[in-house]
Specification:
By secondary structure, this protein is of the alpha/beta class. It is built from ten helices and seven strands. Helix content is 38%, strand content 22%. Strands 3-2-1-4-5-7-6 form a seven-stranded mixed sheet, sandwiched between helices. Helix 8 links the parallel strand 4 and strand 5. The structure holds S-adenosylmethionine (SAM). The site of S-adenosylmethionine has 16 residues, from strand 2 and helix 7. S-adenosylmethionine (SAM) binds next to strand 2 and helix 7.
């Protein structure tokens, strides 16, 4: 099996001021192998080349949580949800990297969730759960609404849709991290209106360059400062059909 680039230690350090332990490196390697295996039956990801996998799945997942990697966590053991996790990104690399967090991996596709259940067992990841469902329904469920410190969401939809999926799930003061490729000023303006309706604010938007292919990426950080009105998230399909 192709080795997943242990020589990247220096790049981790330079770009994220963090390095995986031997155990974390082994977990990343095993994750890569399991995804390649899973890809034979499920259409999990088109990113299978080791360098591309390292950059687009591992590094990118962790770039979004730089504020957590600094070790100044508040609370010390945060509860996270990864909305539309697919093959487990960014949630699984985040769980490997921040072992004291509790994470819920949510996706509407049962086959992907069954695959993730096996990954959690294989990688011996504790305090990690999977959940089959639609973000629109989970956001109205008393067990999940207002339950999380941090919501992660990558490649699930337009930014305002991501805001409508994530903000209802957050506790007051919680943080939503929206992973994006390109970003424009117009998107900021549109998102501002949506976020206000949902009881949040745009805390920051970070632009960065990926370390191997030098692509531009963005992370949008939303802070929940108020209460999300009960009508959000709207019924299944409405956030995408009629974005705020
Ligand atoms: C393009 S994939 C992205 C997967 C992963 N986040 C990543 O970045 O590699 C989008 C995923 O979101 C899930 N999804 C889309 N809409 C959803 C919703 N409303 N609720 C839950 N999952 C959803 C899909 O099933 C799919 O697995």
């Amino acid at each position: 099996m192709t080795n997943l680039l242990p020589e990247m230690a220096e790049i981790w350090q330079q770009t994220l001021n963090w390095q995986p332990t031997f155990q974390q490196q082994a977990q990343f390697q095993r994750l890569y192998e399991l995804i390649l295996e899973g890809n034979r039956q499920l259409n999990l990801t088109r990113i299978t080349d080791p360098q591309e996998f390292w950059e687009k799945h591992l590094w990118d997942s962790l770039r979004g949580i730089v504020p957590l990697l600094s070790g100044n966590l508040s609370p010390a053991s945060p509860t996270l949800i990864d909305i539309g996790t697919g093959a487990g990104f960014p949630g699984i690399p985040v769980k490997i990297t921040v072992p004291n967090c509790t994470i819920t991996l949510l996706d509407s596709t049962r086959k992907k969730i069954t695959f993730l259940d096996n990954i959690l067992t294989e990688l011996s990841l504790n305090n990690a759960k999977t959940l089959v469902g639609r973000a629109e329904e989970i956001g109205q469920h008393p067990q999940h609404r207002l339950a999380y410190d941090i919501a992660l969401i990558r490649a699930v939809g337009a930014a305002s849709v991501c805001a409508e999926y994530s903000l209802p799930l957050l506790k007051q003061g919680g943080l939503a991290i929206i992973y994006r490729g390109n970003w424009t000023e117009d998107e900021t303006t549109a998102l501002q209106n949506a976020v206000k309706l949902l009881g949040g604010v745009i805390e920051s938007i970070e632009q960065f360059t990926t370390p191997l292919s030098h692509s531009i990426r963005h992370c949008v950080y939303l802070r929940k400062v108020g209460t999300t009105p009960v009508q959000f998230p709207r019924a299944v399909g409405v956030p995408t059909q009629k974005p705020l």
